[in-house]
Each structure stands twice: as C-alpha cells, then as structure tokens.
Amino acid sequence: MTQRSSPPRGITVTIGYGTTPQASRATFTGTPAQVSEDIIECFGLDAERFADTPLSDIVLEATSVAVSLDLVARKLGGRLVAEPDAAPQKAAESAAQPASLLDRITGAPDVAVLQRLWVDNQAAFADPQIMAAWKARGRALQAVQAAAD
To answer: Is 144 helix (H, G, I), strand (E, B) or coil?
Structure first.
C-alpha cells in the first residue's frame, strides 16, 4: 500500500468590522499558522505578545479591534484610514515618556490616533472624565477637518 501525503489543511477566517450585514470584512485563508501570522500583521497586533497564542484568541482580539475601529469611526463620523507605516510611530511612542491618557487624548493630532487610544485603553473609558475628553477632542478634530474641506 502506498502512502499519499495529503496537502496541508487550510482554513478560512473572516473578521467583520461591524455588526451589520453591510459591514466590511477581512478574510484570511491558509494554514492556521499562516492565518495567525496574517491576522497579526493586518491588525497591527504585537507579534511577540501573540507568538504562542491560539488562533481563536487572535481572532477574538482582531475582531475586537475591527469592531472598535468601526464604532469609533461611525461615532466620530470618520472613516478608517490605514497609516503608511505605524512601526516607527509605535517605536517613538514607546520611547517617549508615558503621558496620562487625558494628555494623550487632548494632544491627539488626528482621528486615527484618537481611535487607537480608544482601542488600546477601552477599560479607562468607563471613567466619565476620560470619555468626555475623548468625545470633545473628536468633535474638535471633526471641526478642524470640516473647516479644511
């Protein structure tokens, strides 16, 4: 009897950016390792942090990020925009002395940074002062953008 080697098993994972049927989706296909790698890269997750994490947990984290970005964009009336290269910015932010979340919110230069602060610090937004500052900065950035358009 001859043994046939079977091709690597593939999977498909789809991550939705919202809760409606019209919401955008990102679909990944490949082996579980390939899909994990692609999701981590696509959503800008920390590769070292997720190195030994099961695919299901990576999918949950990426889904949380996607839905959060969609929600923030809709609440601020914005749209999702990819940063050209976030790696140098992340390195600079890590090297900088950490400021309080309120300082980072009030100093956010654009909606994308404000959205990222919300995604990265969701638990802190239970504080009404943090949420009020975030909303105020979002409105201010929208007004600046509207004036520029």
So the answer is: helix
